[in-house]
Amino acid sequence: MNATKALVLNKKSEVCAIASSPSVISKSDAIATANLLKAVADPVRIRLISMLVDSPEGELCVCNLVEPLELSQPTVSHHLKILAEAGLVSREKRGTWAWYSLDRERFAQLSKVFN
Fold first, then answer.
1. Which residues pair with 90 in a beta bridge?
2. What is the rounded CA–CA span in Å between residue 13 and residue 50?
3. Where would I find the HTH arsR-type domain in this sequence (predicted)?
4. Measured between alpha carbons, how far is 67 from 80 in angstroms, rounded to an integer?
5. Per-residue pLDDT for the chain (115 aa), expressed as one digit of tens each?
6. In what order do the strands lie in the sheet containing 97-102?
C-alpha cells in the first residue's frame, strides 16, 4: 500500500512542460488565419477560388461564374465580396461587370496553413 501511495505522490508532483517553439503560431497569427479560413469555409467560395486558380487569364468576370455555380448573380457577388474582404480576391469594375482575380500572395498564406 505504501508503494501505491508513493506512486500517486510521484504522479502528482510531476510538472508538465509547456511546449514552446519558434514554429508554433502566435496568437495574432492564429486569429488572422482563423478569419481567413472562415472566409473560405463555404463550398461556393472554395469553388470560386478553384475557378480563379484555374483561370488561364488569372481573372474572371462575375458574369462567367453564375452559370457554372448555378447561382444568381447577386449570390455569386455576395460570396466574392466575402473573399474580397478577406483579401483573397481583388475586384476591378469594367463597364457594368466586375472582374475578379486571386491575390496570389494572400492565397499562398492560406496554403501555408496546410503545409
1. 101
2. 53
3. 25-115
4. 15
5. 554 454 455 555 566 666 666 678 889 988 988 999 999 999 999 999 999 999 998 899 999 999 999 999 999 999 999 999 999 999 999 999 899 999 988 888 877 777 7
6. 59-61, 97-102, 89-94
